[in-house]
Amino acid sequence: MDTNDKPKKGKARAPEQTFEEVKYLRYLIDNHVPVRVRLLDNEEVNGVIEYYDHNFIRVTRDGAPNLFIFKHDIKYLAEAATGAN
After folding, report:
1. Where are the domains of the chain?
2. What is the pLDDT tens value at each position of the chain, 85 positions in all?
3. For 19, phi and psi rounded to 5 degrees?
4. d(CA 85, CA 19)
5. What pTM, to 2 d.p., does this model score?
6. Rounded distance, CA 76 to CA 73, Å?
7. Domain 34-85 sits in CATH 2.30.30.100
8. What pLDDT shows up at residue 58?
9. Which end of the chain is more exposed for a tag (fewer CB within 10 A), N or C?
10. Sheet containing strand 34-39, strands side by side
């Protein structure tokens, strides 16, 4: 058998799901960490994540209505800076 007939073994393929998103969102909720959510249209929303599921997050805001934000509309999510400047 010719060694050229065998498929080459490459690097192991990365898993499709690592569940790190779930762990991180649970951490943000449990610790009431303030977050800044940047949407695809560059609008920013500040608040605390109260709930999430496969499709959306719920952001609780001070002095403004709570929002349900679809995950596919989020550009990024970052922990908001805390403390005095």
Report:
1. 34-85
2. 555 665 666 788 888 778 899 999 999 999 999 999 999 999 999 999 999 999 999 999 999 999 999 999 999 999 998 654 4
3. 65, 15
4. 35
5. 0.74
6. 9
7. yes
8. 97
9. C
10. 67-70, 56-60, 44-52, 34-39, 74-79
CA proximity to 50, closest of 71, 79, 29, 68: 29
Main-chain dihedrals φ then ψ at residue 23, nearest 5 degrees: -60, -45
**Tokens in use for 15?**
């898993």
> Rounded to an integer, what distance in angstroms lies between the CA atom of residue 26 and that of residue 52?
9
The whole-angstrom separation of Cα 69 and Cα 21 is 16
Cβ atoms within 10 Å, residue 28: 19
DSSP 40: T
Question: Which pair of structure tokens corresponds to residue 25?
Answer: 């969102």
Question: Tell me, what DSSP letter sits at residue 66?
Answer: -
